[in-house]
Amino acid sequence: MTHITQPLLQVRDLRVRVGERTVLQSVSLDVPAGALVVLMGANGSGKSTLGMALAGHPSYQVDGGQALLGGQDLLPLPAHERARAGLFVSFQSPPDVPGVKNNLFLRTALNAVHEARGQPPLDAFDFLAGARQTAKELGLPEALLGRPVNEGFSGGERKRNELLQLALLQPRLALLDEIDSGMDVDGVRAVVALVQRLRAQGTAFIVVSHYLTMIEQLQPDAVLRLDQGRIAETGDIELARRIARTGFARQAETAEA
Amino acid sequence: MSSPTATRQAPALEQALARPYQHGFVTDIESDALPPGLDEDVIRAISRKKREPRFLLDWRLAAFERWRGMEMPDWARLKIEPIDFQALCYYSAPKSLQNAPKSLDEVDPKLLETYEKLNVPLHERARLAGVAVDAVFDSVSVGTTFREQLARVGVIFCSFSHAVGHHPELVEKYLGSVVPVGDNFYAALNSAVFSDGSFVYIPQGVKCPMELSSYFRINARNTGQFERTLIIAEEGSSVSYLEGCTAPQRDENQLHAAVVELVAHDDAFIKYSTVQNWYPGDEQGRGGIYNFVTKRGLAAGRRSRIAWTQIETGSAITWKYPSVVLRGDGSNGEFHSIAVSNHFQQADTGTKMIHLGRNTTSRIVSKGISAGHAHNSYRGLVRVNGGAEGACNHTQCDSLLIGPDCGAHTFPYVDAARGDAVVEHEATTTRISEERLFYCQQRGIDPQEATALIVGGFCQAVLEELPMEFALEAKALLAVSLEGAVG
Amino acid sequence: MDSAQADILAAREHLDARGWIARCSEAFHHLPPPALPDWLATHDDAPPLDGPGWTLGQGASGVQARWLDAHDPAQRAELLTGLPRPGEREGEGEAAPFAWAHRALCREGLRLHVAAMPQHVPVCLQLHHRPHARAEAPLLVLDLAPGAHCVLIETHEADIGRPTVAQNLHAHIRLGQGARLQHLRIAAPQADDHMAHHLQVQLAAGADYAQALAATGSGYHLQRSHITLQGAGASARQAALLLLGSGQIDQQTYTDLHATQCASQVETLALAQGWAHAVANAHTRIAPGSDGASVRQRLTGVPLAGHPRLILRPHLEILHDDVQAAHGATWGALPEDALFYARQRGLDEAAARALIIEGMAHALLERCLGPCDGLLAEWLQGGWLARAIAQQLQPGEEVHHG
Q1: Mean pLDDT of chain B
Q2: Sign of CA pseudo-dihedral A71, A72, A74, A80
Q3: How many CB pairs under 8 A join A and B?
Q4: Are the CB atoms for B431 and C321 separated by under 8 Å?
Q5: Which of A198-202, B143-147, B403-407 tops mean pLDDT?
Q6: Contact B438/A58, CB-based, under 8 Å?
Q7: pLDDT > 50? residue B28
Q8: Looking at the predicted structure, is the pLDDT value of residue B377 above 80?
């Protein structure tokens, strides 16, 4: 992919360790603004690790490499500052935050980002109006806004809550990890619609998934296959289709051959 | 029935402290101080200076006798330096303002910073820091309007000393009726040497039109160590009383042994809220204040209700168990509490609900937050006596631990002697996990704010019980108390 | 004077110097124990009891048993090998005088050693104790080798017409790494007996201890356990079923978590009536550094009739943040809807109550001991429970409803 301007996300030779185990050996990729990259790989290949490492999770140690967001060095920043710089990473299992209502949590997060961007904070009413509308579009019952974050939410509801946050926070780069799990066909459609809308506004996406139907609908700019901590293969939608047909094991054999 | 004193022009703060103009102290209070030490002569001197009637002197002397025969209680969990009671001063004029800061510039900047964070109004900061300035603020007029409103409905709200002078029959009737002199060591001491406090009387059928706050007694700071408060609610009346304030209180008095008695008659309701923030002193926990308070409510009348709500933070070594004696049939007692300890603080709080009458109910919600190297203990007793038919209690007691070096302890007691009683006690412990904090951070919320959010959520059930004005301040107070706990 | 006598004398001297349990003792102030002479008295003029002390039913392979005489110096040394001295035991706290009194009076003890069997076949033991003196201090030491699995049923039941006793029993149980013990204890003293049982249990890494206690009230009855989870991944479950038709019981359960990934569950169900008086005290402490600790306490009191008095004290001391801890205490009558349901299906009042109570008791024991087969299953279905419930909890007095 050649571009005139610098890609929004630039990752070079990223090496990430979890405990004693090096999960990502060396990962490099570029994602321009408004582009969507699909990341695929067998279980244990390190797909979730990339997101967590970029987000700054304390359990993930970066042993080498570089990551730039809009030219800004991400790695020295604490997690909340990376978020305010415009990075959104969805969680595979979003935790609950007992006692803290969803709308309070969202408004606090949103205003933190606004403040970082020099935008005025939203008051409760303005926020709620926007939140309700977005929730409706995503098929989230309005009642969820008044409940403590993720408490008692089903798996699918938690994923939709992630999307609600994505829609409200409007990040520059979003990494979505298996966002389709637990969702029905309508849910997936809503995901795609939201992603495309944000993409049109310039948000870049890395989508981790193996659900071909959704991948097709997303019309990715590139498909990457992660294997044993490295990007083993780069391609387009064809690559995704091939993986869907033949699985990952074959690829390893093919690679070795 | 009291009459409001004449309004005055804004006096110098110094004058206001030394010669309170509202229903207040006996006027020559500032003329003498007694040397340290405690014996019968000291008590007689105190009573004489305050010009108390005979019954009160006799009461004090009897209490002193009881106290002399008692031993200081030993609670294994609290580490307290021994207190030399003969070294304390039991009567002194308001603190000389010679050594007070002359202006805010001379006040500890950290203290000022805290006032800033809590949004304490500027004129308040001076008062709280003990600055001797000309009072430019107009608290006089505020106080006056307030007192007019109360006078109209017959509510008596004055200092204890004033009540002794103007309503001795009420004082004599109710003093010691809820906390008898022999109740415990500190109550006995207090009964012998108490200096002043609040007195509230709500006549039959009156719903007190506003929240009463100890702040409005401008001489609140003078009462020092041995404060005595008495609140009486006649049939069908109700009142909400606030004690303390969120701004940090500096105090050289090491020992506070206060007694608060509440009496609620048929269908009456008393709500007593405390927000106490003792200035932390140093982060090693040195300079701590010992806070031994006996607070008890007697739900004497049928269907009477008493509710204790409190938020405690700071370096106080606190030993207080607000309790409710549920004597009236159908009476109800409630206790809602948040106790925060950080650094090296120790808090030991809890409640007692004693069910005596028929069909009595009680509800306890206690939230303890520990951070740093602090220890937070909850000690609660629910007792159902043999005659307490149909008693029902529910207790929810939760602890939040922040960091690996603090401690949370819960020691509930259920003592039931009735087959038809229902008592339920539940307690859980949680912590602010790394995963949760990270989740908040990935959404752009910094760790400090995330902690404040989570703590606020944890305490929500109690914050909802606070009078509105306190609730907002309380959240800010929680945030400030937990600074440095995370991140 | 030989070493045994010297040791006994030293213990008595210690008691004289330090005295008995203080009245204001935090652990004992609700139900103060009888004074020291009661526990040490020798009734020279009374005929000796003919109980044989400890008996081990049906020889089982995998277990070594040694009955040892505490008055013989060599045997005493063997008996007390590896046991901490009174006053030096972890968690002993205010119960130390009992330990000294035991040291002074103990006449004999039983040491059991259980080995690990091939295929982890459990070693099943039935241990029965009958008092052989009016005041006695039995001792039991049970060691499980690493990997051993043992099922132990320990019974203390009164024979009809037996004179009253004051029994101060001490047991030390040590589980090696990965060992597992399912321990069912029956303590049914006579109405006027004074009985005090003290158990000290230590769990190495990965060990699992489940103790189910069924106890009835008497003039004085103390059941005190102290369990230390010393190695990572150890777990302990304690269940107590207190059947209190009358008399009193003081149940104290202390649990100390010292290592990571440990789990502890304490559950007590007290069924009480008449003028029964009981204290159930569960105290669990989680030491700093005990990552992943999981602790549950549940104390339930069910008043059936009369005027029983029950004090429930579930206490938690938590000194670490990576823990999951919860406790609850409830006091309340049998669930009305369950009772009504049973009656609506044709059972009369008494039968419905018995059914519900037995169900609760069975559930409690099974939650603790896990799936039971063989010896345990036989016992649980064998009817002791039903008989004890029927005997202790006869609907006698008028019951207040609603």
Answers
A1: 76
A2: negative
A3: 82
A4: yes
A5: A198-202
A6: yes
A7: no
A8: yes
Mind telling me how many Å the CA of A112 is from chain B's nearest CA? 6
Exposure string over A182-215, b if 16+ CB within 10 A, otherwise e: ebeeebbebbbebbeebbeeebbbbbbbbbbebb
Which residues lie closer than 8 Å to C249 by C-beta, 6 or more apart?
Answer: C215, C216, C217, C218, C221, C222, C223, C242, C270, C278, C279
SS3 content of chain A, % helix, strand, coil (to 5): 40, 30, 30
* Residue C215 contacts residue C247 (beta carbons within 8 Å): no
CA dihedral angle for residue A51, residue A55, residue A61, residue A67, rounded to 10 degrees: 80
Q: Are C40 and C105 in contact (CB under 8 A)?
A: yes
pLDDT tens digits for C340-366?
776 676 677 777 777 788 888 888 888
Residues of chain A contacting B439 with CB distance shorter than 8 Å:
91, 94-95, 97
CB contact set of B147 (below 8 Å; sequence gap of 6+): B4, B22, B157
Residues 6+ apart with CB under 8 A from A56: A74, A77, A78, A79, A82, B438, B441, B442
Euclidean distance between CA atoms B238 and B232, whole angstroms: 10
The residue among B196, B318, B202, B305 whose CA lies nearest residue B259 is B196
* Contact residues of A toward B, CB < 8 A: 55-59, 78-80, 82-84, 87-89, 91, 94-95, 97-101, 104-105, 108-110, 112-113, 116, 148, 165, 169
Of all residues in chain C, the one with the smallest CA distance to B380 is C313
Q: For residue B165, what is the enclosing H or E element?
A: helix B160-166
Q: Is B421 on the interface with C (CB under 8 A)?
A: yes
| Residue position matching structure tokens 């106790």 | B339
Between chains, do B407 and C318 touch, taking CB under 8 Å as contact? yes
Dump the DSSP string for C37-48.
Answer: HHHH---TTSPP
Closest CA to B304 of B285, B275, B332: B332
Strand partners, A97: A149
**DSSP conformation letters of A43-70:** TTSSHHHHHHHHHT-TTEEEEEEEEEET
pLDDT in tens, B74-129: 654 555 566 666 666 666 544 443 455 566 676 666 666 666 666 655 555 655 55
Q: State the amino acid at position C30 in one-letter form.
A: H
Express each pLDDT in C90-137 by its tens digit: 667 889 999 999 999 998 899 999 999 888 888 999 999 988 888 999
Mutation for A interface: B369, B400, B442, B448, most A CBs within 10 A = B442
CA dist B361 and B357 (Å) reads 10
- pLDDT for A114: 84
B417-444 pLDDT tens trace:
888 899 988 888 888 878 888 999 999 9
Chain B residues with CB under 8 Å of C306 CB are 419
What digits encode the pLDDT tens for the residues A98-157? 777 888 888 888 888 888 888 888 887 888 888 888 888 877 788 888 887 887 888 888
In A, minimum Cα distance to B432 occurs at: A97
Instruction: Find chains touching chain A: ≥3 CB pairs under 8 Å.
Output: B
According to DSSP, residue A208 is labeled E
> What Rg do the C-alpha atoms of chain A give, in angstroms?
18
Query: Cβ B439–A95 below 8 Å, yes or no?
Result: yes
Q: Please name the residues in contact with B78: beta carbons below 8 A apart, sequence gap of 6 or more.
A: B317, B319, B346, B348
Alpha helices in C35-145 (DSSP H): 36-40, 73-80, 96-105
DSSP state of C72: S
Instruction: Spell out, as residue ranges, where chain C has pLDDT lower than 70.
Output: 42-51, 58-59, 90-91, 337, 342-343, 345-346, 394-402
Contact B404 C320 (CB under 8 A): yes
Which residues of chain B are within 8 Å of residue A171 when distances are taken between CB atoms?
Answer: none
Do the chains contact at C313 and B413, CB–CB below 8 Å? yes
